[in-house]
Design goal:
The chain is of the alpha+beta class and about 550 residues long. Among the domains are: about 220 residues, Thrombin, subunit H, CATH 2.40.10; about 80 residues, Serine Threonine Protein Phosphatase 5, Tetratricopeptide repeat. Helices cover about 50% and strands about 15% of the residues. The protein is built from 22 helices and 13 strands. Helix 9 packs antiparallel against helix 10. The longest helix has 18 residues.
Length: about 550
């Protein structure tokens, strides 16, 4: 595996596997930083073992990627034989077969790298872990290639034994300059130690990097800066489990104890895990550290508000709507921002104080903050407090009037809400118009339920041809839903297409053999066709399934 951009090749020089009977004088000193690495699966079965070495005194080390692949746990043995757990993976590179990790160790011996280029003909040494005499192999540099401006790739004139893969490589005077790579074609290879700078967790990992990290089932560390770490945590919050995300946040807070953002973010998974006292402590710390108190009060208010809405069954006496209201009121005394006013209105809605919520929206709608969103919210509060449908519709008319013509896609939900209000008010043709516009604004990306609802509206508006088309669209989108065939049967009965009604009822029963409505409607369709025997049979079956209307049909037409 030879990486070349610009190669300088000279005649192969003599290389010996062992340059002397004993190791170089400096070997015993640097060997203190070399460790043995052992990895295990989730059942604590040994997976692999190999060599690694510390690169600083904080317990950070590098080793062979193959040793860590698939591992759920790892330990290192230092030169004295003491064992330490690996706690975090700090970077992975499958291409060059390297992993950077941290071990739970106090002060450790580190091998300090040098930033120097080795010349062709230089003698170098590979050292492996050995608790006694250092295990080493000497080699001669035969080629120097450039991976990029700062990282070199070296070839040696003869292969380096496989037991030295990913082991540190030293200059003749004992300076760390590289890591041994697998030999190929009778040559050994050494990667410049400067490549270690690229072994980090990226804020937004590439697909290649993410894949390499995902193959290791050990907790991952954080990117090297606070800003990158916060971006990384944001994306991980969407995909990681609460436990994994909590582990990342614990590391962030340990690394950056004075950063308020970590405490606010950690409160969310703690709340999800019902660890409310811990979450409350984090919120208090966040409020103390946050530089902008009004924003901090707003953020804490929102977290408590969300808990009360989405986890109401788990009571926590310190988190109430009254507490949330107090927080947002304090924020408003510092800064009367629109977001804070909207949060207060939403709290009033959650507390079913619809008059108070409407008053806030109404004030906004008579000022410079008037917007389609505030008018929409006002319509919800007005409806909830019992205003007439016409008054609620007027608010939605005002909201829609604020959009440019033709209306943008952002207006789709506003149009749909007004359509539903028209339906509730019995203005079915107006409702159909809004449903049609919603479909257009959504670029026809609607589901089967939408088509079903629209078909029902069109039936009420006596727009039967459109209703037939839409119920067919619903069936096409969801052909295994019996409700849609039943609706089709009802429409076909209205337009006296009896054969189609019978077929639709039968299709309903194929999907739901216990559907009493389908038996009743099938019986009625057969009755209209003159098949009294078939009609009575199906109407009786509907009765058996508890359909009371079936008996009325029998009494009216079959007795």
């Amino acid at each position: 595996m030879r990486k070349t951009i610009a190669a300088c090749v000279v005649a192969t020089l003599f290389t010996t596997a062992v340059m002397a009977q004993s190791a170089p004088k400096w070997a015993s000193k640097v060997s203190k930083g070399i460790v043995s690495v052992m990895t295990y699966d989730k059942n604590d079965n040994l997976l692999h073992s190999g060599t690694g070495f510390f690169i600083n005194t904080r317990g950070e080390a590098v080793a062979d990627y193959a040793v860590f692949e698939g591992a759920s746990k790892a330990v290192v043995l230092d030169a004295t034989g003491k064992k330490y757990d690996v706690d975090y993976i700090l970077g992975a590179d499958e291409t060059y077969g390297l992993v950077k990790f941290s071990a739970k160790i106090g002060k450790n011996d580190a091998i300090q790298p040098v930033v120097s280029v080795q010349n062709i003909g230089a003698t170098v040494y590979a050292l492996a872990y050995s608790p006694k005499d250092p295990s080493f192999q000497a080699a001669t540099i035969s080629e120097v290639s450039a991976i990029n401006d700062s990282v070199k790739y070296y070839a040696t004139s003869k292969a380096i034994d496989g037991k030295f893969n990913s082991c540190p490589a030293f200059t003749q005077d004992g300076q760390l300059f590289g890591m041994v790579q697998p030999s190929m074609g009778g040559k050994g290879y050494i990667l410049d130690v400067n490549h270690l700078r690229t072994l980090v967790i990226s804020a937004i990992p590439s697909k290649k990097e993410a894949l390499a990290l995902d193959k290791i089932n050990i907790n991952k560390g954080l990117p090297p800066s606070v800003g990158e770490s916060l971006v990384y945590l944001f994306f991980k919050s969407r995909t990681a489990s609460n436990e994994d995300y909590l582990s990342m946040l614990n590391l962030f807070i340990k690394t950056y104890p004075d950063n308020p953002e970590g405490y606010l973010r950690r409160a969310t998974p703690l709340t999800d895990l019902l660890r409310f006292d811990e979450a409350e402590n984090d919120l208090q710390t966040y409020l103390k550290l946050a530089p902008e108190r009004d924003q901090a009060l707003y953020n804490v208010c929102q977290l408590i508000h969300n808990k009360l809405i989405y986890q109401p069954e788990h009571k926590y006496e310190k988190w109430t709507f009254e507490r949330a209201m107090g927080l947002i009121d304090e924020a408003l005394t510092i800064n009367p921002k629109l977001d804070y006013k909207l949060e207060k209105a939403q709290l009033h809605v959650a507390m079913q104080e619809y008059d108070k919520a409407y008053a806030i929206y109404d004030e906004l709608n008579h000022g410079s903050d008037r917007s389609p969103a505030t008018l929409y919210a006002a319509s919800l509060a007005a409806e909830a407090r019992g205003d007439s449908l016409n008054e609620v519709i007027e608010l939605m008319d005002s909201a829609l009037a604020m959009f440019p013509t033709p209306r943008p896609a952002e207006a789709a939900d506003f149009v749909l809400r007004r359509g539903r209000l028209f339906n509730a008010a019995g203005k079915y043709r107006d409702a159909v118009k809004d449903y049609n516009e919603f479909c257009f604004l959504s670029n026809n990306k609607v589901n089967s339920t939408f088509y079903y609802d629209k078909a029902q509206l069109e039936t009420k508006a006596r727009m039967y041809q459109q209703a037939i088309q839409d119920i067919e669209s619903a069936i096409s989108a969801e052909p295994r839903e019996p409700l849609y065939y039943l609706e089709k049967c009802g429409i076909m009965l209205r337009v006296n297409q009896l054969d189609e009604a019978v077929k639709a009822a039968q299709q309903t029963l194929q999907l739901d053999s216990q559907n009493s409505d389908a038996y009743r409607m099938l019986g009625y369709a057969l009755l209209q066709k003159g098949d009294k025997t078939g009609a009575l049979q199906n109407l009786n079956r509907a009765k058996e399934l508890g359909d009371e209307a079936a008996q009325e049909i029998i009494n009216t037409y079959l007795k």
